[in-house]
Design goal:
Blueprint lengths: L8 E2 L4 E4 L5 H8 L2 H4 L10 H14 L7 E7 L2 E12 L7 E12 L8 H10 L8
Antiparallel strand pairs: 1-2, 2-3, 3-4, 4-5
Protein name: N-acetyltransferase domain-containing protein
GO molecular function, one term: acyltransferase activity, transferring groups other than amino-acyl groups
InterPro entries: Acyl_CoA_acyltransferase (IPR016181), GNAT_dom (IPR000182), N-acetyltransferase (IPR051531)
């Protein structure tokens, strides 16, 4: 079940839905794909356990601080990728967050590379009125 801490967003081609447990197979496919991961993290695909940990982290970011979140993107019902705007915990506490920094990221399936989806997805939620602090 999806925890709807953030809104579903739409662009001309994308529906960005709040990340849910039902999206785990999609995030794991991207995290375990050598082509996707060669430029991410350690430059290698994640193991199944690592991919599960990433999905768990994505889910936590979706609900930890209002105004932040993680979205799964779909074009005509087909999974395109995911987008995240995450708070960064302070060194002192994982429950307190920096006020001057955030983390932005995304992963897009190779099938959709070079078509502008990464920019379109990120641009949609950066344009939200509540983002005036970013």
């Amino acid at each position: 079940m999806t925890i709807k801490a953030q809104a579903t967003l739409r662009t001309a081609r994308l529906e960005l839905v709040p990340m849910g447990h039902e999206h785990r197979k999609f995030t794991m496919q991207l995290d375990m794909d050598p082509e996707v991961m060669r430029m991410v993290a350690f430059g290698r695909p994640f193991t199944e356990d690592e991919a599960i940990q990433v999905h768990t982290w994505l889910m936590g970011c979706a609900t930890s601080v209002p105004g932040f979140g993680t979205w799964a993107g779909f074009a005509k019902g087909e999974f395109v990728g995911w987008w995240i705007l995450a708070p960064i915990p302070t060194k002192e506490s994982s429950e307190e967050f920096m006020t001057d920094r955030t983390e932005y990221g995304f992963r897009v399936s190779p099938k959709f590379w070079g078509q502008g989806y990464a920019k379109e997805g990120g641009g949609r939620w950066f344009a939200m009125p509540s983002r005036n602090w970013v």
